[in-house]
Amino acid sequence: MFFFIKEGILNFFRNKYTNLLVLLVLSVSIFFASLFYLLSKNIDYLLEQIKRDISIIVYLDDNISLAQRQKIEEELKTLQSIIEMIKFIDKDAALEDLRMKSKELPQLIEGIIDNPLPAYYEIELKKIDDKIITAFKQIFSNLAGIESVDYGEKNLYRLEELRKKINITMISVSVIMALFILFIIYNIQQLAIFNRREEIEIQKMIGATKMNIRLPFLIETLIIIIISIILAQGFLFAIYKGITNNIINYSFFKNYNLLFFDKYELLYIFCGFCFIAIFAAVIAVSKFLNMTTDED
Amino acid sequence: MIKFVNISKWYQDNTIKALDNINIEINRGELVFLTGASGSGKTTFLQLIYRGIYPTAGEIYVENQEITELPDRKVPMIRKKIGVVFQDFKLLYKKTVFENVAYIMKIMNEKKSMINLKTENILKEVGLWYKKDYLPHTLSAGEQQRLSIARALVNNPPIILADEPTGNLDFDNALNVMELFKKLHYKAATIIIVTHNLELPKLFNGRHIKLIDGSIVYDSIKDNTNTKQE
Q1: Which residues of chain B are within 8 Å of residue A209 when distances are taken between CB atoms?
Q2: Is the distance from CB of A263 to CB of A195 less than 8 angstroms?
């Protein structure tokens, strides 16, 4: 095995100029594939954060009785495990809140004599999705003293749609980049094999097995792809660090952190690209070996 | 043992005949000289033995194994038992003299100490030890031929096929090479040498098979009077 590893390393250096070019192309491809995946991850995370800000607002009847309010609060207590925070806003506080929000249009508030705004509960959930909203709907539809409930469904569905579209786009781009990498390695190996076809023929004639011939090519491919992955991820991390260090001053990003790959994701990326590269190299070498066997 | 049963080989969509219905047995330890004019089928004869090509018809047995039907994955096993000296050397030009000889042992996972010892011995025997770190293209044709021979012999294969092994050598080197083959013959290796030199079979007391247009026209082991030798 050591002999074949040595052969693979020697082959890498024998074709150093071609391999440097391949390294560059692969590094750029892996960089973009990883970048799109990272963008997808960050957008996903961002949307999750935004979703958290969506609250369920339970508007109460003006003439709600104390017993009815207590019943609502009891029901909410049973949902404590999924609720992050409950805030009760009475009618006066609701009007004050509106007044604060309408500072630029004070005429909107000036005409109000009787406070038309209902008291309400603002419920922030730990996680929001269709199932949870359905569960809330079932509870609130059976309770008296509730005027209406705003579940924030429209925003939620918009975000979900957006997330789906972004994920599909990002995954498609990543898959295209992965296929591009497969295509590059396949063709590079075909070229390498073509350049060494005489050497391979001689090796076969003096008793080398297909595996003996294949191994140095696979090891050479592995060296190229590992260096490419390290370069691409290193560059991506440098950019990530640069961005996180510089955008921290923007107010938007004070609430939303940017993420990088965790160690498991890096491992998956590493294994994934290695697999793609080896797969492409195996196909390329096997195709050549089978072709020459047929010619025999 | 090598056995050809009704072997025919045609090239280019069965338009060019290379061998025509050959039936022959070469026993273990025989020293055989295959002679004939260019295009008589000598090289084809050798290529069929190491399965460099397939016959158009017939069966070939090498070491009691029928090799024409042998799966591709088992061909290297046969080739490892056969040392081949090619007419055009077929050296690995990116590897040094030492690496060319050691290659086959390395892929056979031999111990490094054994590889070094065997390689040193054979390179000394063919007079190339002092050039062990040279690349083949820096050697003369004669030296490349000797290197090719060293590679074929290093593993003491039971069968040695040599296509014009002395063709590029001067008389002294040719004699040295033939002495090498003779030594191996004494070690019970089966040796088949393709040559144009009709004196070699007599000189080294080997079996002489002559081919003309793909047919055996003379086999010294059979009745010498029943031949078509020209």
Answers
A1: 73, 76, 107
A2: no
Strand B190-194 versus strand B31-36 pairing type: parallel
- Quote the pLDDT of residue B88: 82
What percent of chain A is predicted at pLDDT more than 70? 92
Determine, yes or no, domain membership for B158: yes
Q: Do B131 and B143 contact (CB within 8 A), yes or no?
A: yes
Is B64 a member of any domain?
no
Q: What is the 8-class DSSP label of residue B155?
A: T
Mean pLDDT value across residues B120-149: 90
pTM, whole model, 2 decimals? 0.70
Query: B110 pLDDT band (50/70/90 cuts)?
Result: confident
Position B57 in a domain: no
Q: Which two tokens stand for residue A211?
A: 């595996």
The CATH number covering residue B208 comes to 3.40.50.300
Predicted confidence band at A254 (pLDDT cuts at 50, 70, 90)? low
- Domain residue limits at B93: 29-43+73-219
- In A, minimum Cα distance to B148 occurs at A206
Nearest to B90 among A14, A205, A207 (CB): A205
B12 is a domain residue: no
pLDDT bracket for residue B96 (50, 70, 90)? very high
A55-151 CATH = 3.30.70.3040
Q: Which of B96, B103, B161 to mutate to probe the A interface, most A CBs <10 Å?
A: B103
CB A207 to CB B106 under 8 A?
Answer: no
Do the chains contact at B107 and A205, CB–CB below 8 Å?
no
Q: Tell me if chain A has a CB within 8 Å of the CB of B103.
A: yes
Domain residue limits, chain A: 2-50+159-295, 55-151
Of A201, A207, A296, the CB nearest to B80: A207
Q: Torsions phi, psi of B162, nearest 5? A: -130, 120
Question: Hey, is A78 helix, strand or coil?
Answer: helix
Residue A248, pLDDT > 70, answer no
Q: Point out the residue among B52, B54, B108 whose CB comes nearest to the CB of A205.
A: B52
* Distance from the B106 Cα atom to the nearest Cα atom in chain A, whole angstroms: 7
Regarding predicted confidence, which is higher, A55 or B42?
B42
Number of folded domains that form chain B:
1
d(CA A9, CA A216): 8
**Which positions in chain B touch A207 (Cβ < 8 Å)?**
76-77, 79-80, 82, 104, 107-108
Tens digits of per-residue pLDDT, A41-52?
888 888 777 777
Q: DSSP string covering A93-145, please?
A: HHHHHHHHHTTT-THHHHT--S--PPPEEEEEESS--HHHHHHHHHHHHT-TT
B164-169 average pLDDT score: 79
pLDDT at A271: 93
